[in-house]
């Protein structure tokens, strides 16, 4: 009987090696870089902080296209054609 699942998958995406294992000290360093106070962290989850870290890392990215003003509202009203 053959294997049900393929386990020898070679992803095309290159994954950079981790510089260091995540730990509490690294997490607090990233919080300090984001200027988050203890009071800020009281109302946040770890996932929210990680989302902020990712967004900060993407701040330098330049995008070819920018959405026109009001396009999100039009999208949620069902008036925006995504095929354009």
Structure description:
The protein is mostly helical and 84 residues long. Helix content is 42%, strand content 0%. It has a domain at 21-59.
Question: What's the short version?
Answer:
The protein has 84 residues and is mostly helical. The chain has a domain at 21-59. The chain has helices at residues 24-33, 38-42, 46-58, 71-77.
Highlighted features:
84 residues, mainly alpha, 4 helices
Helix-strand sequence: HHHH
Please compute the radius of gyration using only Cα atoms: 20 Å
Number of strands: 0
Structural class: mainly alpha
Helix percent reads: 40-55%
Termini gap: 49 Å
Q: Report low-confidence residues grouped into runs of 5 or more.
A: none
| Secondary structure tally, helices | 4
Overall 3D form: extended
How many strands, which pairing sense, and closed or not: the largest β-sheet? none
Average pLDDT score:
80
Strand content: under 5%
Give a topology summary.
Blueprint (H helix, E strand, L loop, with lengths): L23 H10 L4 H5 L3 H13 L12 H7 L7
């Amino acid at each position: 009987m053959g294997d049900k699942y393929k386990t020898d998958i070679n992803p095309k995406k290159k994954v950079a090696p981790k510089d260091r294992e995540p730990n509490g000290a690294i997490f607090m360093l990233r919080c300090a870089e984001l200027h988050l106070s203890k009071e800020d962290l009281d109302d946040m989850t770890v996932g929210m902080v990680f989302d902020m870290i990712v967004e900060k890392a993407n701040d330098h990215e330049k995008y070819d296209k920018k959405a026109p003003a009001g396009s999100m509202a039009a999208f949620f009203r069902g008036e925006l054609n995504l095929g354009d």
